[in-house]
Amino acid sequence: MKKVVLVKPGEVRVEEAAVPEPRKGEILLKVHNIGICGSDIHIFQGLLPFVRFPVVQGHEMSGEVADPNGSARLKKGDRVVIIPRTLCRECEDCKSGRDNWCKDLKILGVHTDGVAAEYVSVPEYLALKIPDAIPYDVAAMIEPLAVTVHACNVAGDLAGKNVLVVGAGVIGNLAAQAAKAKGARVMIAGRTQYRLDYAKAAGIDFCVNDQKEDLGEALKREFGGGADVVFECIGVETSVNESFLRCRKGGIVIIAGIFGELQRVDMFTLQDKELIVIGTMLYLKSDFEESIALALEGKVSLPPLITGSFPLERFQDAYAHIADKANQVMKVMIKVL
Ligand SMILES: [Zn+2]
Ligand SMILES: [Zn+2]
Fold first, then answer.
1. Is the model's pLDDT at 260 over the cut of 90?
2. Which of 109, 215, 226, 275 has the fewest CB neighbours in a 10 Å radius?
3. Cα(231)–Cα(299) distance, integer angstroms
4. Which ligand is nearest to the CA of 105?
5. How far is the CA of 273 from the centre of ligand 1 (A)?
6. pTM, two decimal places
7. 331 and 206 share a domain?
8. What's the CATH number where 65 sits?
């Protein structure tokens, strides 16, 4: 089978490898689709210091069970997604169901090898069945959707709330859709028009290009002032400070962006407004289940966000396609099967 290895930053190699033999507690999966994530690009560029090379990338995945290896829950041919992290399953947080806090959590494709191959062997507990009505490419978007569903759940009940999403990339778009599905009125702000157009097409209430329009004015017009809840979905200090600025007094700011270094944040505004600032990390199994239900019920629109696909052996071309600013890119898929 083919397997894609990131030998070192910037160098992808397609290798021939034996189909892995599932060990005890593992299942063998035939990989169908792999979504490429912002974090994959950062690893490819060598920007995440804790990643050791060589590494097999890929964590947003759909596939089918090739060998259930004695699983009581799964059979050959079952359509699945994986929750791409391994857990100790013994610590207090694992036992209490807060397993995204597990002291020994490892993300596939980051801390340990990922799924960029024709077959992968993974712990059985990572796999979740998906309904036939969700195609494999859409299923590979359940993982980023679950990131945003978790962020929404961290924020509490969003029904009737005025929500602002700062950043209109894939995570921003999905956060806006998830918040709307949970009953919020949603404004999304960004500077790249085509990304805002995707949000508009998905039915987001207010899409503001903050290069062309004053975001404060737009908030005053639509929400009567600052947002009740702001989702920061970029991961730079200016967007954190923008989020503080655009949140109402006593409001909640959820930090969903991924940061590369220490940030200088506006503590004065945070304190003055008595803001509640909450970090969010990954997801729980329940967020994945909720995401599968949202996709199935059509409460979020995922297929339009898939803007390109490449075969497994062209992984590096997919990265080049994403990096080329001339392309209007949202989610790019590696179509293995
Ligand atoms: Zn991802
Ligand atoms: Zn644990």
1. no
2. 215
3. 19
4. 2
5. 32
6. 0.97
7. no
8. 3.90.180.10
Q: How many angstroms separate the alpha carbon of residue 281 from the centre of ligand 2?
A: 15
| 295 in a structural domain | no
pLDDT of residue 194: 97
Q: What is the domain-level CATH number for residue 189?
A: 3.40.50.720
Buried b (16+ CB within 10 A) or exposed e, 240-253: bbbbbbbbbeebbb
Q: How many structural domains does the chain have? A: 2
Q: Give the model's confidence band at 48: pLDDT under 50 very low, under 70 low, under 90 confident, else very high.
A: confident
| Within-domain flag for 289 | no
Q: Are residues 88 and 188 in the same domain?
A: no
Is residue 292 situated within a structural domain? no
User: Which ligand does the CA of 91 lie closest to?
Assistant: 2
Please spell the DSSP secondary structure of 5-60, one letter per residue: EEEETTEEEEEE-PPP---TTEEEEEEEEEEE-HHHHHHHTT--TT--SSB----E
Q: Do 114 and 196 belong together in one domain? A: no
Give me ligand 2 centre to Cα 66, in Å: 28
Per residue in 181-226, pLDDT tens?
999 999 999 999 999 999 999 999 999 999 999 999 999 999 999 9
Is 37 contained in some domain? yes
Percent of the chain that is helix, strand, coil (3-state, to 5):
30, 30, 40
Ligand at shortest distance from the CA of 145: 1
Tell me: the pLDDT tens digits for 300-333?
Answer: 999 999 999 999 999 999 999 999 999 999 999 9
The residue segments making up the domain with residue 19 are 2-141+302-335
Ligand nearest to the CA of 148: 1
Ligand in closest contact with the CA of 35? 1
Segment 82-119, tens digit of pLDDT: 999 999 999 999 999 999 999 999 999 999 999 999 99
Tell me, in angstroms, the distance from the centre of ligand 1 to residue 223's CA.
Answer: 31
The residue-averaged pLDDT of 160-164 equals 98
Same domain, 105 and 34: yes
Gap from CA of 151 to ligand 2 centroid (Å): 21
Distance of alpha carbon 55 from alpha carbon 58, whole angstroms: 10
Say how far apart CA 288 and CA 80 lie, in whole Å: 12
